[in-house]
Design a protein that fits this description.
Layout (H helix, E strand, L loop, with lengths): L2 H8 L1 H32 L3 H27 L2 H18 L9 H29 L5 H30 L1 H20 L16 H13 L2 H6 L3 H7 L2 H11 L3 H22 L10 H19 L5 H29 L2 H27 L7 H27 L7
């Protein structure tokens, strides 16, 4: 049996935590795809999609430094359960979005969901090494890294199909039920989700400052917490997906397929390239290569007009992006002390999500008056340029010092 499946069958606590992650991620995209097709229909503008996506990522990014501190100082199980229940309530609030005048409710609800996810994400990532043995960490991390892609495929595909068949509102209600089930799965985890703590800083900002000093004093960690920003800066393409699907004549189902292709690539990447985790010499070159491939794949997408080829390009781009995410997460988990892990991951997520939000707002400013293929090409080119700059700085830092005479 493959190691990734073996740890899933042997370890009940990891299985429950993994199931909670799967259910919550699927529900998230089961909400997002119908909402991204509903808002342009109600308002007549693709900019609302950019606002929703930016709220989803930007609010999370702004809160992550604080929520990472919370993940290091308080009961992670309780954090995960409360966050899930809050997301369920906010999904139900989307049932109120019925007219252009109520479109603002979607932004408030998505922003509130983003607050909950900001608490959930660092707590879940920091808890993972506590529910598996050290020998199983790489396999568990590969599975965890594939969860987002798996449920994006399922959630986006089913969300697009259900939205086209039944409309968005049944999707919102079902998502609320699913996130409640995620909370139940977290409650079933019995292992402690954090190690015993010594005295913690009394103020959150003091704890954040401690994590930032740790990152600044470790160039390798600093490189790893900036690597996801390359793919993040290319994620403005997500704003274009509904418009691109309409241009290809595919409608809401096409939007769901584009997001599902994104998830399929993110699923395949971590599973296909997990062996690279055991070869540390491959890490930094592999990260630079994955960023570059992401950008080049989207430049290729901008040049084709046949939907199956577009989907194939999106899969390839996010195969590279998913690999990038998995590789950096694994090394951060292995190298960072448990007492700092939540805060460092919070900084990592913050930089990635801020770059995503900035990219989505920038692309959203042009989405109603610019050819979507041009916006796709520009997003890919930005990622390639970032990759080149990151590689130049990182490889210079890691080069051995010249011997003194």
């Amino acid at each position: 049996m493959p190691p990734a499946l073996s740890v899933l069958t042997r370890n009940k606590d990891f299985r429950n935590l993994f199931a909670a992650d799967l259910i919550g991620l699927g529900a998230d995209w089961f909400v997002m795809i119908p909402l991204l097709t509903l808002l342009p229909h109600l308002t007549g503008s693709g900019m609302w999609g950019a606002f929703v996506l930016a709220a989803d990522t930007g609010v999370t990014a702004l809160l992550l430094p604080y929520t990472g501190t919370v993940a290091d100082r308080f009961d992670r199980r309780r954090i995960l359960i409360v966050a899930d229940l809050a997301m369920a309530a906010c999904a139900l609030a989307l049932l109120l979005v019925r007219t252009p005048a109520t479109a603002w409710v979607a932004l408030v609800a998505v922003g509130a969901i983003a607050v909950a996810k900001a608490f959930f994400a660092p707590a879940a990532q920091a808890a993972l090494p506590n529910v598996v043995d050290a020998a199983d960490l790489s396999a568990a991390n590969a599975l965890s890294g594939s969860a987002w892609g798996t449920m994006l495929v399922i959630g986006a595909s089913l969300g697009g199909i259900a939205s086209q068949a039944f409309g968005p509102y049944p999707c919102f209600a079902l998502a609320a039920v699913l996130v409640s089930l995620s909370a139940l799965q977290v409650w079933r985890v019995r292992r402690p989700l954090q190690a015993e703590r010594d005295a913690e800083p009394s103020r959150p900002f003091a704890a954040i400052a401690e994590a930032l000093r740790y990152i600044r004093g470790n160039p390798r960690v600093a490189s790893l917490v900036t690597v996801k920003s390359a793919v993040g800066l290319g994620n403005g393409v997500l704003t274009v997906f509904p418009v691109l699907a309409a241009a290809l004549g595919a409608g809401p189902l096409g939007t769901g397929l584009l997001f599902a292709a994104r998830g399929l690539g993110a699923l395949i990447g971590p599973l296909l390239l997990r062996r690279a985790l055991s070869r540390r010499a491959w890490l930094l070159p592999g990260l630079a290569l994955s960023m570059t491939l992401y950008g080049l794949a989207y430049i290729g997408v901008s040049l084709v007009t046949w939907l199956p080829l577009v989907l194939a390009g999106v899969v390839l781009a996010h195969l590279a992006g998913g690999t990038n995410w998995m590789m950096s997460n694994y090394v951060l988990q292995a190298e960072i002390p448990d007492a700092l892990r939540g805060r460092v991951f919070a900084t990592d997520f913050m930089l990635a999500t801020l770059s995503i939000a900035a990219s989505q707002l920038a692309v959203g400013a042009f989405v109603d008056r610019t050819d979507p293929r041009l916006l796709v090409a520009v997003s890919g080119a930005v990622t390639v340029l970032y990759a080149a700059g990151w590689a130049a700085v990182t490889l210079r830092r890691s080069a051995p010092a010249a011997p003194q005479e």
